[in-house]
What we know:
There is one protein chain. By secondary structure, the protein is α/β, with parallel strands linked by helices. It has 2 domains: 2-20 and 245-441, UDP-n-acetylglucosamine1-carboxyvinyl-transferase, Chain (Alpha-beta prism); 22-243, UDP-n-acetylglucosamine1-carboxyvinyl-transferase, Chain. The chain is 27% helix and 26% strand. The strands form 6 sheets. Strands 2-15-17-16 form a 4-stranded mixed beta sheet.
Amino acid sequence: xxxxxxxxxxxxxxxxxxxxxxxxxxxxxxxxxxxxxxxxxxxxxxxxxxxxxxxxxxxxxxxxxxxxxxxxxxxxxxxxxxxxxxxxxxxxxxxxxxxxxxxxxxxxxxxxxxxxxxxxxxxxxxxxxxxxxxxxxxxxxxxxxxxxxxxxxxxxxxxxxxxxxxxxxxxxxxxxxxxxxxxxxxxxxxxxxxxxxxxxxxxxxxxxxxxxxxxxxxxxxxxxxxxxxxxxxxxxxxxxxxxxxxxxxxxxxxxxxxxxxxxxxxxxxxxxxxxxxxxxxxxxxxxxxxxxxxxxxxxxxxxxxxxxxxxxxxxxxxxxxxxxxxxxxxxxxxxxxxxxxxxxxxxxxxxxxxxxxxxxxxxxxxxxxxxxxxxxxxxxxxxxxxxxxxxxxxxxxxxxxxxxxxxxxxxxxxxxxxxxxxxxxxxxxxxxxxxxxxxxxxxx
Length: 444
């Protein structure tokens, strides 16, 4: 699909509600599937990645039904039972481990689905094969395989990539210090620790997003947080209703558009404001952007509020590095667009993990923004942007099968002198199928 984007004719005005946080949507379904009891999940994300998680856990016997378009009712006794036993060559007695092969379980394009589910499945009593699409099959899985093996997991991969063959077995707690600030790795190990013998301790160099810890507390896990260290005792989760706020990573595209489209002034309501996720807001403030948080409150253990954003003419450049990175890793492509409108050089470093996303986001971002006439240079672990002047446009761009790259290019198109065309724009449906519709509500 080719999407043509023209310069915005009018300021962006009004109020919008961003769709549900994808990170919490994934976790709400997974954790409720291994919890005991019934619950309701409200404002569930219907992005393709979250649907992959929903379908995966349905295949393990969790009763999940929609009561409306974004509300789920989930019932579980806390035990996963694969529903495709007819495909097994042998079925052993329930008291023994299964040494049998099921049909593969498909995780689509979702790294969150595969990496977090691996932590849960490592301690089960059956074998699972997790597969993904072409993009997911290229993404690194050693980052979860190696610590899972330390807790006793038996996982076979193809040179550290999917498909993952996971033979469930008894696990034991470990004391693990990660040199990577990754919420997916952390969540994978903590999920394995729920069902392990002994205490699991996990520490990281910088705090990564903490939705897993928040939901664990909310659902009754025996978990303690000490600065960058998490201490988890084996626990059974109790099902509880979960209300999901809007996704701050999705809001980032609108925040950027509001700051750079002349005359804009609008409010993004009911947005997640978890401190491990609000790096985008801190960077906007550091750049002098006109942004205001209103109506702060707590919802299902998470901080939320409304965000007012207004056009800002004189943005300042900044350096983004170190502990900034885990708090805005997904927002860096659109932050590059924002930096192009600052007066001076913005530097992004310590962000080498961008190369392991749906695309090599450093290489692809530099390639596509350069076509627009934006001055951006690739670095090994990031990029630099020399701001000043509107993008020239008048070119055809590639999404590289990457939803965040496609949406970032769309934002750049709103201020480009000439229209642009984006190939592969349909990849936005992976995370944000309502993207264009919401911009329509702001009177483009």
